[in-house]
Amino acid sequence: MKHWRAYLELTKPRVVALLVFTALIGALLAVPGVPPWRPLLAGLAGIWLAAASAAALNHLIDQRIDRLMARTARRPLPSGALRPAQVLAFALLLGAASMLVLVLWVNALTAALTFASLIGYAGLYTAFLKRATPQNIVIGGIAGAAPPVLGWTAVTGQLHAYALLLCLIVFLWTPPHFWSLAIFRRHDYARAGVPMLPVTHGLAVTRWHVLAYTVLLTLATLLPYLTGMCGLFYLGGALVLDAGFVYYALRLLQPPDELWAMRTFNYSILYLAALFGFLLADHWLLLAAGSALPPGR
Asked: Can you say whether the dihedral through the CA atoms of 111, 97, 34, 220 is positive or negative?
């Protein structure tokens, strides 16, 4: 395909990979042993297609902003590598393929929740909230926190409180993750007229918000152990990761240099991947010990 690199960039592969990873962990935690392979693979494919579609729509809606920001000025639309009509067609094709896969080979619940997440991210967050309120990432974060739930429902066909707990963890992770980046890129956002928290309320307020949400996230990560979802192996790993995140957030209050915000942002990515890794490892350890039962039984 001509311009295939530009089309690939539209899908934000690194971001989408992290989302699909959390969906995979959600699916693997949903059942004892290995989930049925067909809904697992089809579910992950459908979730990936929907996330890629939302990412492409984000490029389309944000093309004016992207032209004004150094971080995004080389994206396919601002650089002229692709035209808006091409991006729209690509996004709609991915979205339609996602719904087709999920309806035909997974289940209607997962298709409906995935569609709601796509609309929530591309329509509610990108098209409206991003320009309307400095709390945009908090409200819009619900859509980005959905993948673990989608993975869970893909292999079980039903919602469960544990799946919603995974969603809560990602939801509370999103503000300190994104606001750390926003601190570092605040001049870009100001130039583009985007009311991100560092632009509207300043660095001190944003740094305290990062710390507050990091503390809330730490408390939320204790819930899988306290509710019996996970065991001591997960708890130990989570406490170490939480201690690291709190350290970065505390140091961010009086950072040693301008790059500390980016270090916090980068740690947050490692944090989420490792936390979900501990969830899965603990799940399998409990299964090996014969002490894990199907959720809700």
From this structure: negative
Q: Any residues with CB less than 8 A from the CB of 196 and at least 6 apart, and which?
A: 134, 136, 137, 179, 182, 186, 189
Terminal-to-terminal C-alpha distance of the chain? 49
Residue 297 has pLDDT above 90, yes or no: no
Amino acid identity for residue 270 in this structure: L
pLDDT digit string, tens, across residues 228-251: 999 999 999 999 999 999 999 999
For residue 13, give Cα distances in angstroms to 6, 9, 24, 185, 245.
12, 7, 16, 21, 25
Average pLDDT over residues 30-53: 95
The span from the CA of 130 to the CA of 147, in Å, is 21
Give the rounded distance of the alpha carbon of 280 from its chain centre.
18
Angle, to 10 degrees, between the axis of helix 136-144 and the axis of helix 108-119? 160
The full length of the chain comes to: 297
The span from the CA of 72 to the CA of 59, in Å, is 10
Number of neighbouring beta carbons within 10 Å of residue 163: 23
Return mean pLDDT, the chain. 93
